[in-house]
Write a structure and sequence with these properties.
globular, 4 helices, alpha/beta, 5 strands
C-alpha cells in the first residue's frame, strides 16, 4: 500500500529543494492523502508549459490530428516526462525532470507492481504539478 509520512517528506525535502534551486525554479513540497509526494512548481526560468505545448503539437501532427492548447498549468506524467522533453529538443527540461524525480524517490522508493495480475505496490506515488488549477505557472525568464 502506498504510504508516505511527514517525516519521510522532511528527509526528501533538502534534495528536492536543491534540484529546484539548481534549475532556477520555485515550488512547494507536500503530501496528498498520505499516499503521494507532491511537488507544485510555481515559477521558474524553464518554459515547462511551452515545452509541453510543443510536444503536444508534434504528437498531434504525427497522428494527423488537431493540437489542443495545454493551458497555463500542467500535471506531469513522471513516467514519460523526460522522454517527451528530449523528443522536442528540451534537454535542460528533461534533465530537470530526471533529477527532480530521482530526488523525489530518494533511497526508499520502490515499485513492486505486476500489471499482469492487476497488483500494484508502490512505496508512494509521485505527483508533479506545474502551476495549479487556480494559479498559472509563472515563467520568470
Amino acid at each position: 500500500m502506498a504510504y508516505i509520512s511527514q517525516d519521510e517528506k522532511k528527509e526528501l525535502a533538502p534534495q528536492i529543494k536543491a534540484v529546484l534551486k539548481k534549475y532556477g525554479m520555485k515550488g512547494t513540497i507536500g503530501i496528498n492523502h498520505y499516499s503521494s509526494l507532491v511537488v507544485n512548481i510555481k515559477s521558474g526560468i524553464l518554459d515547462l508549459i511551452g515545452a509541453a505545448q510543443k510536444h503536444n503539437d508534434e504528437y498531434a501532427l504525427r497522428r494527423g490530428q488537431d493540437s489542443y492548447p495545454v493551458g497555463d498549468n500542467l500535471q506531469v506524467n513522471e513516467c514519460y516526462c523526460e522522454e517527451w522533453a528530449r523528443e522536442v529538443g528540451e534537454d535542460t527540461i528533461a534533465d530537470f525532470y530526471k533529477e527532480l524525480i530521482t530526488a523525489m524517490k530518494g533511497n526508499g522508493w520502490y515499485n513492486n507492481s505486476d500489471i499482469m495480475t492487476d497488483y500494484f505496490d508502490y512505496a508512494y506515488y509521485l505527483n508533479i504539478n506545474v502551476g495549479k488549477w487556480d494559479k498559472a505557472y509563472e515563467l520568470t525568464a
